[in-house]
Design a protein that fits this description.
226 residues; mainly alpha; 75% helix
Amino acid sequence: MIVDALAVPGARDPWLFAATVLVLNATPGVDLMLVLTSTLQRGLRGGVAVALGIVAGCVVHALAAAFGLAALLAASATAFAAVKWAGAAYLAWLAFGMLRAAVAPHALDLPQAPLEAPRGPAFDAGAGRLFRQGLLTNVLNPKVALFFLALLPQFIDAGAPHKTLAFLFLGAWFVLQSLAFLIAFVLLVAPLQRWRPPAALRHALQALGGALFLTLAARLALTPRQ
């Protein structure tokens, strides 16, 4: 059934494509680390909000690849550098927030309600902020845009009459599979929030997360345009 469905828009090797997407989803990186830290800090709803933001970013990249915007990043050093530095700055800003929380005396003194989340306008605002974090982290990473540009054409028949449609179809497949993976990851990690480590350990983990995001920001900033 999947083979027939993917053959219609000119896509090929559907099982290989699905396996490739799974490996990419499971590879530790900025998106997965952000989902992990958000789920541990904010619980199930927080992790889902970030995951939805990341997937929304993937939608942007899929559309960009389909309509040629990703090709601009590959061809223009200025455009690539602008997006790269914006993404690195945003990751550094997230890292600064984590490090500031790590040194603040009471920043991590959360109520003892593991999987409970506030409801109503306060939670909606928090979920919206986490969604934007996931969205911006993904969108401001030119490596993701170039990845879409490099990966998707490998699974499109050279003689496909409507290559843009094939791009969109594979992009939608990537988005849906990534959403399923991230939601499953959140559900797997969320129960760990029941564990209430000592305050010193919570601060140390927050500092470690900040250092990790600083490292990711530096790696992104030093990424050459290939």
